[in-house]
Specification:
heterotrimer; A alpha+beta; B mainly alpha; C mainly alpha; B: mainly alpha; 12 helices; about 75% helix; globular; C: mainly alpha; MetI-like fold; 13 helices
């Protein structure tokens, strides 16, 4: 049965990855500390974080190129922690694509099948199918260096997919492409992944990419997962200061927790009461907290409940209008839709937002 | 104007570069009993002379045998050592690297006399084997350097990719690592062959009267005879080198052999 | 970010350093037994009398005897002249090569390297014929009605033969250096009003200095230590150290003295190379050895 024709329900049943307390030290430094993770079969999960946060190390442990110092890695309930990489079934696409330079594209793609001793006739058929699937039908006889970056990337993807892996692992696969191609290819990859339903782990430092492609995102820093949630939750309701600051622009307002509100949790910020919805346990009343509000969710009103302030600056940015409002809690950046009324500089306004669109964390 | 001058100059340099070989080849055909250029008359007599002298043939066999062995051993030892240095940390690694690079700097003649005195001290008699050992010192450093250059050009992810696709460590080595250093291995084998086959300096100290490599045989012959036999041997050796170069060019490309191009082609 | 660490999953539980050592073992054995040990023997022998007693007399003899001081001096002189000769021939040749197409450059490189593919003995023998009394140069001079001078068995013959061998070692690093020069620099200087010669003098030449220096070092040290070409083209009349190492070891059979001369030669050539690499580490440069 070919990859392309695999009915989704059979494909979706496989590929449940579980990491339990996985640790790794490299060169005397703990790069990954006790990472727990569990994917749904067919899920597209992204490990997002800055350089050195441990995301690539984690991916390499999943693939088996690095051995975990502690913890358990399971696929579909099978413990693979001690299984060498060639006996796992992981399709990996590397940042450099890692195509074998001395082999044609067809031979590159056929490599995994050859290792699995798939008979030649079936091998050829599967290679042709997967190449067609990624749009490289005419390129089978070429060598990697005769291909463009985007084509190489597709060839690497084809090579990873043809073995029908338990998991598809993508290590910054789009970072060597120019901006336009990057967006186009990632759309293609997502569409393909949805179609064949292979559980996919993407490693990236590009937050926009992570938000665009993932079912869930695990934000990593210093070897731990700070937050694991759907893109919308990660964006609007960051669980930690790191997550809030790493992704997009955020207004961070310091205040004191004031107990449950009508919706979410109330909080005293510079004399005003605002509300937000903490992603985890709500903090104890009276605790020092920080409220995180994205510029896009803030609405300006002439009066009403919220943070009062004076408009200091407005700027038309094409898709958005950016305003800076000076409040007692500090400057609040607001991104208004392009067709909103532009407030005058010096105007007194109230900044308000839906509590479920903002987050709250102890500081 | 500058172009014409440049072209003329390059032609002169070219002439200078090929002169000794061209003259050797031409004068091997001379009918005179002494070497002269331009040759007078045309004869293949001196080629017949070469084949009439069994000592030249046996020297050729010895030289070629040692050179082939040196080529094979250098490639294998160079590959192992290159992999060790590139991928592993082990006690003595720094010292080994230092010794390998200093081997380039030590004059061959000093190595020759050092080996002479050391072999004498060890009571090791001259044999094709000692000759091979002596030549390995000249050839292995090149092999290691070429292998290291080849390994540096290999993307380690390609090995990971192969492992991830189901290749066992041996198959990863066979299908990915080895092809990456293939050029380096052929190059080092070729270098080793040429170096060993051509070596006079070290061989002079290691050989005996019964065991003479071809360069030693020619060198000694030249001291006493000035007949065109040597030019005939020279021509045969030039032919040999040309054939070898063409074969190598076919399989690897001369430019890559000398490390001139690493990536494009 | 790239997590470089140990590749996991090998079924072998041998420590990694032992695998490395095992792989390096043949090379270590070869160099310990056939390089380090002989050189130590050589150094030790150079401090011995023929009878085996410890002495400095071999070095005292070499440095004290005007004849051998002359040998040392002549070795340095021939090496220096060869280096200069290679520069004078090689620099214009490298410039010429630089202006050619990739294909032409390949052929020129092959031409340059062709002497290295041919046996040293045969090459030197070829020069013996070219420069000899029955050779083409003598023929041309006789035809012009001149008496051909003695071209063999002197410094000039050695010089010609050595430049022939060494030219590639000069041109290749030089090419490397020239290729690294930003091709827009010369037009930029011309735009600022510098004539062609000034451009060469003030831009190309100084920027190619690392290549020249690298080539010069290689040529100098290889020439100072070369034996075959000088022995054939110069013979006993041209006093060079490698030749005396050889005769002392094989004809006079004074091994300790041969060892001492050899060791002085090592000091001369490696001292030069060491000094050069020191120099390089201080001022950033790029070298292509060999």
């Amino acid at each position: 049965m070919s990859v392309a024709e695999a009915p989704p329900e059979t494909a979706v049943r496989r590929g449940r990855l579980r990491l339990d307390g996985v640790r790794k030290a490299l060169g005397g430094r703990e790069v990954v500390s006790a990472v727990d993770l569990e994917t749904e079969p067919g899920e597209f999960l992204t490990l997002l974080g800055p350089s050195g946060c441990g995301k690539t190390t984690t991916l390499n442990m999943i693939a088996g190129h690095l051995s975990a110092d502690g913890g358990v890695i399971e696929v579909d309930g099978r413990d693979i922690t001690a299984v060498p990489p060639h006996r796992r079934s992981m399709g990996m696409v590397f940042q450099s694509y890692a195509l074998f330079p001395h082999m044609t594209i067809a031979d590159n793609v056929a490599f995994g099948l050859r290792m699995r001793k798939v008979p030649a006739a079936r091998r050829r058929k599967q290679v042709a199918e997967v190449l067609e699937m990624v749009g490289l039908d005419g390129m089978a006889g070429r060598h990697p260096r005769q291909l463009s970056g985007g084509q190489q990337q597709r060839a690497a993807l084809a090579r990873a997919l043809v073995i029908q892996p338990d998991l598809l692992l993508l290590d910054e696969p789009f970072s060597n492409l120019d901006a336009q191609l990057r967006v186009r290819l990632r759309e293609e990859v997502v569409a393909l992944q949805r179609r064949i339903g292979t559980t996919t782990i993407l490693v990236t430092h590009d937050q926009e990419e992570a938000l665009a492609v993932s079912d869930r995102i695990a934000v990593m820093a210093d070897g731990v997962i700070h937050q694991l949630d759907r893109p919308r939750e990660i964006y609007l309701r960051p669980a930690t200061d790191f997550v809030a600051q790493f992704i997009g622009e955020v207004n961070a307002l310091d205040g004191t927790a004031a107990g449950p509100a009508r919706e979410g949790h109330a909080c005293e910020v510079a004399g005003a009461t605002v509300a937000a919805m903490p992603p985890g346990e709500p903090p104890a009343t009276g605790a020092a907290v920080r409220v995180y509000v994205r510029p896009e969710v803030v609405r300006l009103a002439a009066d009403g409940e919220g943070l009062r302030g004076t408009v200091r600056e407005t700027r038309f940015l094409g898709s958005r209008i950016r305003c800076v409002v000076a409040t007692k809690a500090g400057k609040v950046t607001v991104a208004l839709p392009f067709d909103a009324r532009v407030p005058e500089v010096g105007e007194e306004v109230t900044c308000a937002w839906r509590p479920s669109d903002a987050s709250l964390a102890a500081r | 104007m500058t172009r014409v001058l440049g072209g003329a100059f390059a032609c002169l340099v070219g002439l200078f570069l090929v002169a000794p070989v061209a003259v050797t080849v031409a004068s091997s055909l001379t009918a005179t009993a002494y070497v002269t250029f331009p040759p007078q008359g045309i004869t293949l007599r001196w080629y017949a002379e070469v084949f009439a002298k069994p000592e030249f043939l046996s020297s050729f066999v010895l030289s070629a045998g040692v050179a082939v062995a040196a080529a094979g051993v250098s490639a294998v030892v160079g590959l192992a050592c290159g992999l060790a240095i590139h991928r592993y940390r082990f006690p003595g690694r720094g010292a080994l690297e230092a010794v390998l690079s200093s081997a380039f700097a030590v004059p061959t003649i000093v190595l020759g006399i050092g080996l002479l005195q050391w072999f004498a001290q060890m009571g090791l008699a001259s044999s094709p084997f000692t000759l091979l050992l002596a030549h390995l010192v000249l050839t292995v450093p090149y092999a290691v350097r070429l292998v290291l250059a080849g390994l540096a050009g290999l993307d380690r992810s390609a090995e990971k990719a192969a492992a991830g696709l189901g290749a066992s460590p041996f198959l990863v080595f066979w299908h990915v690592t080895l092809p990456a250093v293939r050029g380096a291995l052929i190059g080092s084998a070729f270098f080793a062959f040429i170096t060993s086959f051509d070596d006079l300096t070290v061989a002079l100290f290691v050989v005996t009267t019964d065991l003479q490599t071809l360069p030693v045989r020619i060198f000694n012959y030249m001291q006493y005879d000035y007949d065109p036999t040597v030019t005939a041997i020279g021509t045969l050796m030039v032919l040999f080198a040309v054939v070898a170069a063409v074969v190598i060019e076919r399989f690897v490309g001369v430019a890559r052999l000398f490390g001139a191009d690493q990536d494009h082609k | 970010m790239a997590a470089v660490g140990r590749l996991a999953g090998g079924t072998l539980k041998r420590p990694r350093w032992r695998t490395g050592l095992l792989l390096a073992l043949p090379a270590i054995a070869i160099f310990a037994l056939l390089f380090v040990a002989p050189l130590f023997t050589l150094v030790a022998n150079s401090f011995r009398t023929q009878a085996g007693a410890f002495t400095f007399s071999n070095y005292a003899r070499f440095l004290g005897d005007p004849f051998y001081r002359d040998v040392l001096w002549n070795t340095l002189k021939v090496a220096a002249l060869t280096t200069i000769g290679c520069l004078l021939v090689g620099y214009p040749f490298a410039l010429y090569m630089r202006g050619r197409s990739a294909r032409a450059r390949n052929w020129l490189a092959l031409l340059l390297l062709s002497p290295l593919l041919i046996s040293m003995v045969i090459r030197a023998y070829g020069w013996l014929v070219v420069l000899g009394p029955n050779g083409p140069i003598a023929a041309v001079l006789t035809w012009l009605g001149l008496t051909p001078p003695q071209l063999l068995y002197n410094d000039t013959a050695v010089l010609i033969g050595m430049v022939h061998v060494m030219l590639a070692y000069m041109v290749l690093p030089l090419m490397g250096s020239l290729d690294r020069i930003d091709p827009t620099l010369v037009p930029a200087a011309k735009g600022l009003g510098a004539p062609g010669w000034t451009c060469f003098w003030r831009i190309t030449l100084p920027l190619s200095a690392p290549g020249m220096l690298a080539g010069a070092m290689i040529v100098f040290s290889l020439t100072a230590s070369s034996f075959v070409t000088p022995a054939i083209l110069g013979g006993p009349k041209v006093k060079l150290m490698p030749y005396f190492v050889y005769t002392q070891a094989t004809t006079t059979l004074d091994w300790p003295y041969a060892a001492a001369i050899g060791f002085v030669l090592v000091v001369v050539t490696t001292g030069l190379l060491l000094g050069y690499s020191r120099l390089l580490r201080r001022g950033r440069g790029e070298v292509v050895f060999g």
